Here is the input.
Amino acid sequence: MSLSAFAALLEGLLFTPARTAKLALLREWFATQPDPERGLGLAALTGELSFAAAKAGMIRELAAARTDPVLFALSYDYVGDLAETVALLWPEQRGGKASPPLVSEVVAGLAATPKPALPGLIAGWLDTLEAGARLALIKLVTGGLRVGASGRLAKVALAEWAGRPVEEVEEVWHGLEPPYLPLFAWLEGRGPRPDPGTAPVFRPPMLAHPLEEEDLAALDPRDWRAEWKWDGIRVQIAATPGGARIFSRSGEDITAAFPDIAEHLGFHAVLDGELLVLRGGEVAPFGDLQQRLNRRAVPPRLLRDYPAHVRLYDILFDGAEDLRALPTDARRARLEAWFARVSPQRMDLSPLIPFDTPEDLARIREGARAAAIEGLMLKRADAPYVAGRVKGLWWKWKRAPLTVDAVLMYAQRGHGKRSSVYSDYTFGLWRPDGAGGEELVPVGKAYSGYTDAELAWLDRWIREHTVARFGPVREVEKALVLEVAFDGVQRSSRHRSGLALRFPRIARLRADKPAAEADRIAALERWLPAEEGAAG
Amino acid sequence: MAPHPGTWLKVTPQGLYCEPGGFFVDPARPVPRAVLTHGHADHARAGHGAVLATAETLDILRTRHGEGAARVMQAAPCGRTLKHNGVRITLLPAGHVLGSAQVLLEWRGSRVLISGDYKRRPDPTCAPYEPAQADVFVTEATFALPVFRHPDAAGEVARLCASVARFPGRCHLLGAYALGKAQRMIALLRQAGWDRPIYLHGALQRLCDLYGRHGVALGELRPVPAPAKRGGTVLAGEIVIAPPSAEATPWARRLADPVVAVASGWMRVRQRAKARGVELPLVVSDHADWDELLATCAEVGAPEVWVTHGREDALIHALAQRGIRGRALHLVGRGEEGEAEAPEAADEAAAPDAPAPPVP
Ligand SMILES: [Zn+2]
Ligand SMILES: [Zn+2]
Here is the structure.
């Protein structure tokens, strides 16, 4: 199948907000496309296959040679995106077009063609394509393909299509290369399960359920182990004779972003831990870790100022020995023994927290105010390490959220089921306006936390109190107070208020409270991480 | 020698005025005498004294504004020439919507062809465009940028049908302008073999009935039912047609997890479609695209082209390269109904050119 089919998939993924619909599109792609096209398309979507064969400038020159400069400028001005402008105004061939290339032909062509011949090759392909496929090709050859399809989504779609648990797909995934022929053969029952050999592969991690108050009362402290839930990102370190990888919780390979960890992975083990930025033994705010995420190359300055560290929770493999069937206590003993034996750099052990009664735990959780701690983890002493979220084995007990009373400022309609409902709320807090009065400044956006009834009430209120409209956004009277819950505050230069909230959500509607009595921005500043709060 | 059209066809604040004839064409404000090209509100306003138009356009005018739409209405069939104060008036099909016509004016051997809005693609709901020669061609320029090239409408309708098959548990809510686009999409769906009932938003019913009275078969059309119980949803697997942005109103909550589709030439620019929250953009337009605008100007053969509304800068530039003199008329009040409006303004009738919303 041709690049046109791939372009249709791409467009579907781009315009479909719902995860279920994206999955349906991907399943259809796997079911209807032949090898190797489906695997190459998959790799292009997940970023496993990315080219930088052509620069934007080359595409621009190709278009400029074929169009009037005034018309090009007017078009670019209107469309606003170079790739889309070129795709749309590329002159159509009169009469029959040559047949469009296969995805595999594009991949092979880019690999085999010397640089000076690339413009001609790309122009030849563009001549055979419709506008949508031209855009897909341009994005593909310039490495600008971003469609919001994560590797995780692709793996779930593969599993659903093949009728297998997603964990099975994840276990073989990282040993494979595009176009994944053995994977498709296995999933279609035509071939054996791909053997990753000694390659470092991702093992689906064990996840926790949120603890409810009634679960706590039923806990027998003798059967449970407690430790901190650190506020970083959960990672899996897989170091084998075939190499070493750092995986995110969803199985994305993030090794390239953390060379300061990767260079110390000379051992052979699979470990579960929390990735943090650590300075002088202190865990830095989550915002510092964010500086290090989503990078393919890391400038030395970042390595120096935001040093990464892994705090270990668990061990899955010691060498080639699979420890996952062992109970928690036995794995902990193995982890401590392994740590003492290997003394890995840039790592430490997440300590166990002793407790005697459920009330002890509640007190410990209450007392946890350090920004680096999200709450408590409770693990059954006899639980094996199993993939996914199995109820009754691990609990997470987040510390109580922080709250502020904020004023609703703007509302935006949602997508899909919510496209007729104002469901995204921008809220603000008061600050001095410099002229003796006070002004509202937006501090965040929330689109969850409310009940269906509250959502319906908010929607009606917003429609009745609109003062201005900007496309799908309404500005409302500054008259409704929302109690907003959040997990933390950090400084942010991207926000007008200079602050950003972590995971804000609507806790309660406070229609009873006058807007003037909502919180001041100073109420947030006191929650800033200690060292910054003092400086600011 | 024949007089130059500029000496007898004037641009006034109300619109184009034929001086010897004493009438306006598509005036923006009430006038004593008007010739109307078609029924879209930015061309056909209520409150004129005497109106000349096709019988279909007059029927549309009556349906929208009642008998008070104009004091006197005179129907003129396409292709027959009338004389008024020495001016010869001939209506010719424009292929835009039902009853749409171009107005050919001749005075003392000087000819002007006023196209109104037009398209060159086949449309099962209206008569096809008929070219004619003129000294001045008055054209629209709604899609006058080379980025606008409409694909084959049948292919776009096939994409709609494929989406319905892919998401059988969801309702497809197709946004289409009430006059013309809605009926054309229905007719195209019928041509594609969609023989199930098509469900209509209440705002489309009267115009669909009107098309039926004029012999345009649209198959079985039904109103959108209310859910059996409060909070329930209806019409999974079905197609509902509604005015653009109806998905933003509380009315849409009765529909089962709707896929929001929009049929419009503006959907060609995908980033714009995405910004509007459209899930299935269908590029189907009742206006000429870039290539068709240029081809039509060449076909009419006029040495001078006047541009009423749209992207006149690009069109006039391209015409100059072809040795044709272009002139922008800057007619006020155009482009406020149908596709000629900017896509952003289609959203809940928001003020056009609204500033971007502030972000926190
Ligand atoms: Zn029109
Ligand atoms: Zn118009």
Observations:
- The pocket of zinc ion (ligand 2) is lined by residues B 40, 42-43, 117, 140, 334-335, 340 (CB under 6 Å).
